[in-house]
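Database export, one record per block. Field names are fixed; values are copied verbatim from the stored entry.
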Amino acid sequence: MARKPVTWYIAIPADGIIEMSRQAGTPINLSASVGQVIDHPNPCTTKWYDETPFSYFRMVKRVGEVLEDTTIWPITWPVRLWIVEPLGETGNWSPSHYPYRLLSHRIRVLEEADAHLALGPCGRDVLTAIQEIPERAARWATDWDADPEGRHERKRDWELCGGRWAYSVAVGVSRNHRERAARTWIEHLARTAVGRALADTDASLMARCYAYGRATGHAIAAQHQSRFQTYLLDTLRGVELDSPAPVAA
């Protein structure tokens, strides 16, 4: 039985240039090189070590890790995702520790892929969830500042009764599915959305922290919505925190 061909990915900023090549002063534009073979402008002589800030092309076959080690900072969206073909000699720092990664000094640029794949199979839903965060963040912050003590108590109970557990499960599943980089980016994008939404408000520091946590759970739930059952997804989203507070007897 023929083995399925491996697809190799590289993630780059929206302008099409590999960020590490830009920082090294030898910018390589993948979007302008479709179908072409690109030789590395400054290949390392001792394979595979970083003799310069940009010593080789880095690619992955697990698309959920493609955003790792891109040096794109600050983390922003959109990015662009490209499928490439490694040519010539290839290697790896440690195949046992990085089985999904490949290094080479020559690539062929094949085609552009949908960037949302870098955020996992539910990447489109993740981006939709992040778009919802600004409106939700304002409500989360308002809820906290309206009753800081009561909200703190409810948040503590939620964490002890499943909130922390749900997040740890999501982290473990991201790791097992080779989506650690995707999770890291999702969390950054969620927190950035909160920061922008509350930038010109008088929300307290604790209200902002509360909104950051809620936004992270909301976005991570979208990442795993095809994997987790409703209970776990609702726990990540903090649905219980949005329900009316119980009335004391």
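Remark 1: The mean pLDDT is 94.
Remark 2: The first strand starts at residue 8 and ends at 13.
End of record.
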